[in-house]
Design goal:
Rossmann fold; 5-stranded mixed β-sheet
Length: about 425
Protein backbone atom coordinates (compact mmCIF):
# COMPACT_ATOMS: atom_id res chain seq x y z
CA UNK A 1 0.00 0.00 0.00
CA UNK A 2 1.32 3.40 -0.95
CA UNK A 3 0.72 5.81 1.93
CA UNK A 4 1.29 9.47 1.25
CA UNK A 5 2.99 11.11 4.26
CA UNK A 6 1.62 14.53 3.33
CA UNK A 7 -1.91 13.18 3.48
CA UNK A 8 -1.06 11.83 6.92
CA UNK A 9 0.22 15.23 8.01
CA UNK A 10 -2.94 16.91 6.74
CA UNK A 11 -5.18 14.30 8.36
CA UNK A 12 -3.52 15.02 11.70
CA UNK A 13 -3.87 18.77 11.21
CA UNK A 14 -7.53 18.50 10.15
CA UNK A 15 -8.41 16.38 13.17
CA UNK A 16 -6.78 18.81 15.60
CA UNK A 17 -8.32 21.81 13.81
CA UNK A 18 -11.76 20.28 14.29
CA UNK A 19 -11.25 19.78 18.01
CA UNK A 20 -10.06 23.33 18.66
CA UNK A 21 -12.61 24.72 16.17
CA UNK A 22 -9.85 26.45 14.25
CA UNK A 23 -10.91 29.36 12.05
CA UNK A 24 -11.38 28.09 8.48
CA UNK A 25 -8.97 30.59 6.93
CA UNK A 26 -6.22 29.86 9.46
CA UNK A 27 -6.76 26.17 8.90
CA UNK A 28 -6.23 26.66 5.16
CA UNK A 29 -3.15 28.79 5.93
CA UNK A 30 -1.62 25.92 7.94
CA UNK A 31 -2.52 23.30 5.32
CA UNK A 32 -0.42 25.07 2.71
CA UNK A 33 3.37 25.51 2.75
CA UNK A 34 4.41 29.13 2.24
CA UNK A 35 6.95 28.23 -0.41
CA UNK A 36 7.86 25.13 -2.39
CA UNK A 37 11.04 25.12 -4.46
CA UNK A 38 12.01 22.37 -6.90
CA UNK A 39 15.51 22.52 -8.35
CA UNK A 40 17.21 20.59 -11.09
CA UNK A 41 20.80 19.67 -10.29
CA UNK A 42 23.10 18.68 -13.18
CA UNK A 43 26.16 16.91 -11.81
CA UNK A 44 29.25 15.68 -13.57
CA UNK A 45 29.67 12.10 -12.33
CA UNK A 46 33.05 10.45 -11.85
CA UNK A 47 32.69 8.67 -15.21
CA UNK A 48 32.48 12.06 -16.95
CA UNK A 49 28.77 11.79 -17.75
CA UNK A 50 26.21 14.37 -16.65
CA UNK A 51 23.39 13.17 -14.44
CA UNK A 52 20.49 15.42 -13.45
CA UNK A 53 19.09 15.11 -9.92
CA UNK A 54 15.97 16.72 -8.46
CA UNK A 55 16.07 18.61 -5.17
CA UNK A 56 13.41 20.26 -3.05
CA UNK A 57 13.19 22.85 -0.32
CA UNK A 58 9.82 23.38 1.31
CA UNK A 59 9.14 26.26 3.69
CA UNK A 60 5.96 25.51 5.58
CA UNK A 61 5.52 28.26 8.18
CA UNK A 62 7.69 31.00 9.69
CA UNK A 63 5.23 32.75 11.99
CA UNK A 64 7.36 31.95 15.07
CA UNK A 65 10.80 32.33 13.46
CA UNK A 66 13.02 31.27 10.53
CA UNK A 67 12.19 28.00 8.78
CA UNK A 68 14.10 25.07 10.20
CA UNK A 69 14.45 21.51 8.98
CA UNK A 70 16.79 18.87 7.67
CA UNK A 71 17.87 17.76 4.22
CA UNK A 72 17.27 14.15 3.22
CA UNK A 73 19.12 12.18 0.55
CA UNK A 74 17.18 9.11 -0.55
CA UNK A 75 15.96 7.52 -3.80
CA UNK A 76 12.37 7.59 -2.49
CA UNK A 77 12.29 11.31 -1.64
CA UNK A 78 9.13 12.90 -3.05
CA UNK A 79 7.81 16.41 -2.88
CA UNK A 80 4.89 15.24 -0.74
CA UNK A 81 7.28 13.62 1.70
CA UNK A 82 9.27 16.86 1.99
CA UNK A 83 6.04 18.84 2.45
CA UNK A 84 4.95 16.50 5.24
CA UNK A 85 8.32 16.74 6.96
CA UNK A 86 8.28 20.55 6.68
CA UNK A 87 4.82 20.67 8.24
CA UNK A 88 5.91 18.43 11.11
CA UNK A 89 8.89 20.73 11.71
CA UNK A 90 6.54 23.66 12.27
CA UNK A 91 4.76 21.70 14.99
CA UNK A 92 7.99 20.34 16.46
CA UNK A 93 9.53 23.78 16.93
CA UNK A 94 6.31 25.06 18.47
CA UNK A 95 6.05 22.15 20.92
CA UNK A 96 9.57 22.69 22.21
CA UNK A 97 8.86 26.41 22.26
CA UNK A 98 11.89 27.40 20.22
CA UNK A 99 11.58 30.52 18.04
CA UNK A 100 11.75 28.73 14.69
CA UNK A 101 9.31 27.65 11.99
CA UNK A 102 9.12 24.60 9.77
CA UNK A 103 11.00 23.70 6.60
CA UNK A 104 12.55 20.63 4.99
CA UNK A 105 14.67 19.69 2.01
CA UNK A 106 15.55 16.63 0.04
CA UNK A 107 17.34 15.30 -3.00
CA UNK A 108 16.18 12.26 -4.94
CA UNK A 109 19.42 10.27 -5.04
CA UNK A 110 21.00 7.09 -3.83
CA UNK A 111 23.92 8.32 -1.73
CA UNK A 112 25.11 4.75 -1.08
CA UNK A 113 25.90 4.33 -4.77
CA UNK A 114 27.75 7.65 -5.11
CA UNK A 115 31.38 8.52 -4.44
CA UNK A 116 32.30 11.19 -1.90
CA UNK A 117 33.32 13.61 -4.65
CA UNK A 118 30.00 13.07 -6.47
CA UNK A 119 28.16 13.70 -3.22
CA UNK A 120 30.18 16.85 -2.64
CA UNK A 121 29.37 18.20 -6.11
CA UNK A 122 25.69 17.34 -5.65
CA UNK A 123 25.55 18.95 -2.20
CA UNK A 124 27.30 22.12 -3.28
CA UNK A 125 25.12 22.43 -6.39
CA UNK A 126 22.01 22.01 -4.23
CA UNK A 127 23.31 24.63 -1.75
CA UNK A 128 23.84 27.02 -4.65
CA UNK A 129 20.40 26.28 -6.09
CA UNK A 130 18.59 27.03 -2.81
CA UNK A 131 20.95 29.80 -1.68
CA UNK A 132 18.46 32.56 -2.52
CA UNK A 133 15.86 31.26 -0.11
CA UNK A 134 17.97 30.06 2.84
CA UNK A 135 19.94 32.20 5.31
CA UNK A 136 20.77 32.49 8.99
CA UNK A 137 17.69 34.63 9.62
CA UNK A 138 15.48 33.08 6.93
CA UNK A 139 15.74 29.31 6.63
CA UNK A 140 18.28 27.16 8.43
CA UNK A 141 18.65 23.57 7.15
CA UNK A 142 20.16 20.63 9.07
CA UNK A 143 20.99 16.93 8.53
CA UNK A 144 18.38 14.21 8.02
CA UNK A 145 18.45 10.69 6.58
CA UNK A 146 21.78 9.99 4.84
CA UNK A 147 23.19 13.46 5.39
CA UNK A 148 25.59 14.35 8.17
CA UNK A 149 27.98 17.03 9.44
CA UNK A 150 30.06 16.47 6.28
CA UNK A 151 27.27 17.66 3.97
CA UNK A 152 26.42 20.51 6.38
CA UNK A 153 30.03 21.70 6.17
CA UNK A 154 29.91 21.71 2.35
CA UNK A 155 26.64 23.66 2.41
CA UNK A 156 27.96 26.19 4.91
CA UNK A 157 31.13 26.63 2.87
CA UNK A 158 29.27 27.03 -0.44
CA UNK A 159 26.79 29.51 1.01
CA UNK A 160 29.55 31.46 2.81
CA UNK A 161 31.63 31.57 -0.38
CA UNK A 162 28.66 32.95 -2.31
CA UNK A 163 28.12 35.63 0.38
CA UNK A 164 31.82 36.48 0.71
CA UNK A 165 31.83 35.93 4.49
CA UNK A 166 31.53 33.04 6.89
CA UNK A 167 27.88 32.47 7.77
CA UNK A 168 27.86 29.57 10.27
CA UNK A 169 24.23 30.21 11.24
CA UNK A 170 22.95 29.27 7.77
CA UNK A 171 22.91 25.60 8.70
CA UNK A 172 23.15 23.43 11.80
CA UNK A 173 24.60 20.00 12.44
CA UNK A 174 28.05 21.26 11.41
CA UNK A 175 31.37 19.84 12.61
CA UNK A 176 32.60 21.42 15.85
CA UNK A 177 35.55 23.04 14.04
CA UNK A 178 33.24 25.36 12.10
CA UNK A 179 30.56 26.24 14.61
CA UNK A 180 28.82 22.96 15.41
CA UNK A 181 27.41 22.52 18.88
CA UNK A 182 28.62 20.09 21.45
CA UNK A 183 25.89 17.50 22.02
CA UNK A 184 24.33 17.82 18.54
CA UNK A 185 25.23 14.34 17.31
CA UNK A 186 23.47 12.59 20.19
CA UNK A 187 20.68 15.17 20.66
CA UNK A 188 17.81 13.24 19.06
CA UNK A 189 18.53 10.05 20.98
CA UNK A 190 19.14 11.94 24.20
CA UNK A 191 15.90 13.93 23.82
CA UNK A 192 14.01 10.72 23.08
CA UNK A 193 15.42 9.05 26.19
CA UNK A 194 14.30 12.03 28.34
CA UNK A 195 10.78 11.75 26.87
CA UNK A 196 10.64 7.99 27.44
CA UNK A 197 11.77 8.49 31.04
CA UNK A 198 8.96 11.01 31.63
CA UNK A 199 6.40 8.79 29.88
CA UNK A 200 7.45 5.75 31.92
CA UNK A 201 6.82 7.72 35.14
CA UNK A 202 3.26 8.46 33.99
CA UNK A 203 2.43 4.77 33.53
CA UNK A 204 4.47 3.57 36.52
CA UNK A 205 6.89 1.65 34.34
CA UNK A 206 10.35 1.32 35.83
CA UNK A 207 12.80 2.25 33.12
CA UNK A 208 15.44 0.22 34.95
CA UNK A 209 15.06 -3.26 33.53
CA UNK A 210 12.45 -2.26 30.94
CA UNK A 211 12.84 -4.10 27.61
CA UNK A 212 13.33 -2.00 24.51
CA UNK A 213 13.18 -2.81 20.77
CA UNK A 214 14.57 -0.31 18.26
CA UNK A 215 13.85 -0.33 14.53
CA UNK A 216 16.60 1.46 12.59
CA UNK A 217 20.16 1.78 13.83
CA UNK A 218 21.35 5.05 12.36
CA UNK A 219 21.88 8.29 14.23
CA UNK A 220 18.51 8.40 16.00
CA UNK A 221 18.35 4.65 16.73
CA UNK A 222 21.93 4.28 17.93
CA UNK A 223 21.86 7.13 20.40
CA UNK A 224 18.38 6.20 21.62
CA UNK A 225 19.74 2.73 22.35
CA UNK A 226 22.79 4.08 24.11
CA UNK A 227 20.94 6.51 26.39
CA UNK A 228 18.01 4.21 27.22
CA UNK A 229 20.60 1.58 28.11
CA UNK A 230 22.41 4.14 30.29
CA UNK A 231 19.09 4.74 32.10
CA UNK A 232 19.01 1.04 32.93
CA UNK A 233 16.82 -0.35 30.13
CA UNK A 234 17.64 -3.60 28.30
CA UNK A 235 17.92 -3.18 24.55
CA UNK A 236 16.66 -6.59 23.47
CA UNK A 237 16.29 -6.03 19.71
CA UNK A 238 17.56 -3.65 17.04
CA UNK A 239 17.41 -3.64 13.26
CA UNK A 240 18.67 -1.89 10.16
CA UNK A 241 17.68 -2.03 6.51
CA UNK A 242 19.07 -5.55 6.11
CA UNK A 243 17.74 -7.38 9.19
CA UNK A 244 17.12 -7.36 12.91
CA UNK A 245 18.87 -8.99 15.85
CA UNK A 246 17.47 -10.15 19.19
CA UNK A 247 18.72 -11.25 22.57
CA UNK A 248 16.14 -11.64 25.34
CA UNK A 249 18.81 -10.93 27.99
CA UNK A 250 19.69 -7.62 26.37
CA UNK A 251 22.20 -6.77 23.66
CA UNK A 252 25.52 -5.17 24.45
CA UNK A 253 24.78 -1.80 22.85
CA UNK A 254 28.39 -0.71 22.51
CA UNK A 255 29.22 -4.04 20.87
CA UNK A 256 26.37 -3.61 18.39
CA UNK A 257 27.52 -0.07 17.59
CA UNK A 258 31.10 -1.30 17.04
CA UNK A 259 29.90 -4.24 14.91
CA UNK A 260 27.72 -1.96 12.77
CA UNK A 261 30.61 0.51 12.35
CA UNK A 262 32.90 -2.31 11.23
CA UNK A 263 30.56 -4.33 9.01
CA UNK A 264 27.88 -1.80 8.05
CA UNK A 265 25.19 -4.12 9.48
CA UNK A 266 23.80 -5.18 12.84
CA UNK A 267 23.48 -8.78 11.59
CA UNK A 268 26.09 -11.14 13.00
CA UNK A 269 26.52 -9.67 16.50
CA UNK A 270 27.62 -12.41 18.90
CA UNK A 271 24.90 -14.12 21.00
CA UNK A 272 22.09 -12.59 18.94
CA UNK A 273 19.33 -14.27 16.97
CA UNK A 274 18.35 -12.89 13.58
CA UNK A 275 14.79 -11.55 13.28
CA UNK A 276 12.84 -9.67 10.63
CA UNK A 277 11.77 -6.06 10.93
CA UNK A 278 8.16 -7.19 11.35
CA UNK A 279 9.13 -9.53 14.18
CA UNK A 280 10.98 -6.67 15.82
CA UNK A 281 7.90 -4.44 15.76
CA UNK A 282 5.76 -7.14 17.35
CA UNK A 283 8.27 -8.45 19.86
CA UNK A 284 7.37 -8.83 23.56
CA UNK A 285 8.83 -5.63 25.06
CA UNK A 286 7.93 -2.56 27.12
CA UNK A 287 9.17 0.18 24.82
CA UNK A 288 9.29 0.22 21.02
CA UNK A 289 11.34 2.86 19.22
CA UNK A 290 10.71 3.11 15.47
CA UNK A 291 13.82 4.97 14.30
CA UNK A 292 13.92 4.25 10.55
CA UNK A 293 11.31 5.67 8.19
CA UNK A 294 7.66 6.58 7.64
CA UNK A 295 4.72 4.19 7.61
CA UNK A 296 6.37 1.28 9.39
CA UNK A 297 3.55 0.75 11.90
CA UNK A 298 0.41 0.13 9.86
CA UNK A 299 -3.07 -1.15 10.63
CA UNK A 300 -1.86 -4.60 9.58
CA UNK A 301 0.92 -4.90 12.15
CA UNK A 302 -0.26 -2.46 14.89
CA UNK A 303 -2.70 -4.91 16.44
CA UNK A 304 0.16 -7.23 17.38
CA UNK A 305 2.40 -4.61 18.92
CA UNK A 306 3.03 -5.54 22.54
CA UNK A 307 5.06 -2.55 23.77
CA UNK A 308 3.38 -0.25 26.30
CA UNK A 309 5.22 2.84 25.08
CA UNK A 310 5.95 3.58 21.43
CA UNK A 311 8.47 6.40 21.16
CA UNK A 312 8.65 7.69 17.61
CA UNK A 313 12.25 8.58 16.85
CA UNK A 314 11.49 8.49 13.12
CA UNK A 315 9.21 11.03 11.52
CA UNK A 316 5.77 9.66 10.63
CA UNK A 317 6.45 5.97 11.41
CA UNK A 318 2.81 5.29 12.34
CA UNK A 319 -0.05 5.58 9.86
CA UNK A 320 -3.23 7.33 11.13
CA UNK A 321 -5.17 4.02 11.04
CA UNK A 322 -2.51 2.28 13.08
CA UNK A 323 -2.42 5.21 15.48
CA UNK A 324 -6.11 4.76 16.27
CA UNK A 325 -5.57 1.04 16.89
CA UNK A 326 -2.65 1.65 19.22
CA UNK A 327 -4.65 4.20 21.21
CA UNK A 328 -7.60 1.82 21.39
CA UNK A 329 -5.28 -0.90 22.69
CA UNK A 330 -4.10 1.39 25.49
CA UNK A 331 -0.62 2.07 24.12
CA UNK A 332 1.12 5.32 24.92
CA UNK A 333 2.52 6.74 21.69
CA UNK A 334 5.04 9.54 22.20
CA UNK A 335 4.55 11.26 18.85
CA UNK A 336 7.45 12.02 16.54
CA UNK A 337 7.08 15.77 16.83
CA UNK A 338 7.75 15.44 20.55
CA UNK A 339 9.89 12.30 20.81
CA UNK A 340 12.50 13.29 18.23
CA UNK A 341 12.50 17.04 18.93
CA UNK A 342 15.85 16.82 20.73
CA UNK A 343 17.63 17.15 17.38
CA UNK A 344 16.02 20.41 16.43
CA UNK A 345 16.34 21.71 19.97
CA UNK A 346 20.12 21.35 19.95
CA UNK A 347 20.12 22.66 16.37
CA UNK A 348 18.47 25.74 17.81
CA UNK A 349 21.19 25.93 20.49
CA UNK A 350 23.82 25.63 17.74
CA UNK A 351 22.18 28.45 15.81
CA UNK A 352 22.07 30.70 18.91
CA UNK A 353 25.78 29.98 19.51
CA UNK A 354 26.54 30.83 15.86
CA UNK A 355 24.64 34.11 16.02
CA UNK A 356 26.24 35.15 19.32
CA UNK A 357 29.67 33.54 18.64
CA UNK A 358 29.52 32.32 22.24
CA UNK A 359 30.15 28.55 22.49
CA UNK A 360 28.76 26.43 25.33
CA UNK A 361 30.01 23.39 27.24
CA UNK A 362 28.58 19.91 26.56
CA UNK A 363 27.09 19.90 30.05
CA UNK A 364 25.27 23.19 29.48
CA UNK A 365 23.81 21.95 26.17
CA UNK A 366 22.55 18.67 27.65
CA UNK A 367 21.10 20.37 30.74
CA UNK A 368 19.25 22.87 28.57
CA UNK A 369 18.06 20.04 26.30
CA UNK A 370 16.73 18.12 29.27
CA UNK A 371 14.82 21.16 30.52
CA UNK A 372 13.30 21.79 27.07
CA UNK A 373 12.31 18.14 26.57
CA UNK A 374 10.80 17.70 30.03
CA UNK A 375 8.81 20.93 29.63
CA UNK A 376 7.68 19.90 26.14
CA UNK A 377 6.63 16.45 27.36
CA UNK A 378 4.64 17.92 30.25
CA UNK A 379 3.05 20.64 28.09
CA UNK A 380 1.92 17.95 25.62
CA UNK A 381 0.78 15.60 28.38
CA UNK A 382 -1.25 18.35 30.09
CA UNK A 383 -2.81 19.51 26.80
CA UNK A 384 -3.77 15.92 25.96
CA UNK A 385 -5.38 15.51 29.39
CA UNK A 386 -7.17 18.83 29.12
CA UNK A 387 -8.79 17.76 25.83
CA UNK A 388 -9.08 14.10 26.91
CA UNK A 389 -7.07 12.98 23.89
CA UNK A 390 -3.96 10.94 23.20
CA UNK A 391 -0.48 12.51 23.20
CA UNK A 392 -0.40 12.92 19.41
CA UNK A 393 -3.52 15.02 19.45
CA UNK A 394 -2.26 16.84 22.54
CA UNK A 395 0.95 17.71 20.74
CA UNK A 396 -0.90 18.87 17.62
CA UNK A 397 -3.27 21.06 19.63
CA UNK A 398 -0.41 22.58 21.62
CA UNK A 399 1.61 23.25 18.47
CA UNK A 400 -1.26 24.66 16.42
CA UNK A 401 -2.35 26.95 19.25
CA UNK A 402 1.20 28.32 19.58
CA UNK A 403 1.59 28.88 15.82
CA UNK A 404 -1.88 30.42 15.50
CA UNK A 405 -1.15 32.76 18.41
CA UNK A 406 1.97 33.98 16.56
CA UNK A 407 0.05 34.40 13.28
CA UNK A 408 -2.70 36.36 15.03
CA UNK A 409 -0.23 38.54 16.93
CA UNK A 410 1.65 39.34 13.72
CA UNK A 411 -1.51 39.80 11.67
CA UNK A 412 -2.00 39.01 8.02
CA UNK A 413 -0.34 41.56 5.75
CA UNK A 414 -1.41 43.34 3.57
P1 LIG B 1 20.13 7.37 9.49
O1 LIG B 1 20.33 7.40 8.04
O2 LIG B 1 21.28 7.68 10.37
O3 LIG B 1 19.57 5.93 9.93
C1 LIG B 1 18.48 5.30 9.33
C2 LIG B 1 18.52 3.84 9.79
O4 LIG B 1 17.34 3.15 9.36
C3 LIG B 1 19.69 3.05 9.19
O5 LIG B 1 20.26 2.27 10.22
C4 LIG B 1 19.04 2.14 8.17
O6 LIG B 1 19.75 0.96 7.96
C5 LIG B 1 17.72 1.89 8.84
N1 LIG B 1 16.67 1.40 7.96
C6 LIG B 1 16.42 1.73 6.69
N2 LIG B 1 15.37 1.04 6.22
C7 LIG B 1 14.95 0.25 7.23
C8 LIG B 1 13.93 -0.70 7.37
N3 LIG B 1 13.10 -0.97 6.38
N4 LIG B 1 13.81 -1.31 8.55
C9 LIG B 1 14.65 -1.05 9.57
N5 LIG B 1 15.63 -0.18 9.49
C10 LIG B 1 15.79 0.47 8.34
O7 LIG B 1 18.90 8.32 9.79
P2 LIG B 1 18.52 9.02 11.16
O8 LIG B 1 19.09 10.37 11.16
O9 LIG B 1 18.77 8.12 12.29
O10 LIG B 1 16.94 9.18 10.93
C11 LIG B 1 16.03 8.11 11.17
C12 LIG B 1 14.66 8.70 11.36
O11 LIG B 1 14.72 9.61 12.46
C13 LIG B 1 14.14 9.51 10.17
O12 LIG B 1 12.74 9.38 10.11
C14 LIG B 1 14.49 10.93 10.54
O13 LIG B 1 13.66 11.88 9.90
C15 LIG B 1 14.26 10.87 12.04
N6 LIG B 1 14.93 11.94 12.78
C16 LIG B 1 16.30 12.01 12.85
C17 LIG B 1 16.89 13.05 13.54
C18 LIG B 1 18.38 13.16 13.69
O14 LIG B 1 18.83 14.08 14.38
N7 LIG B 1 19.15 12.27 13.10
C19 LIG B 1 16.10 14.01 14.15
C20 LIG B 1 14.72 13.91 14.07
C21 LIG B 1 14.16 12.86 13.39
Amino acid sequence: MNINPYENALTQLDAAAKIIKLDEGLHEFLRTPKRVLTVSLPIKMDNGKIKVFTGYRVQHNDARGPYKGGIRYHPNVTLDEVKALATWMTWKCAITDIPLGGGKGGIVCDPKSMSISELERLTRRYAYAISDIIGAEVDVPAPDVYTSSREMAWIMDTYSTLKGKMVPGVITGKPLSIGGSKGRAEATGKGLAFCVREAAKKINLNIKGANVAIQGFGNAGTYSARFLHEMGANIIAVSDSTSGIYNSDGLDVEEVIAHKAKTGKVRGVAKSKEITNLQLLQIECDILVPAAYENQITKDNAKDIKAKIIAEAANGPTTPDADKLLYKNGKMVIPDILANAGGVTVSYFEWVQNLTRDYWSHEKVINMLEEKMVNAFNDVYNTANEYEKELRMGSMILAINRVVEAINDRGIWP
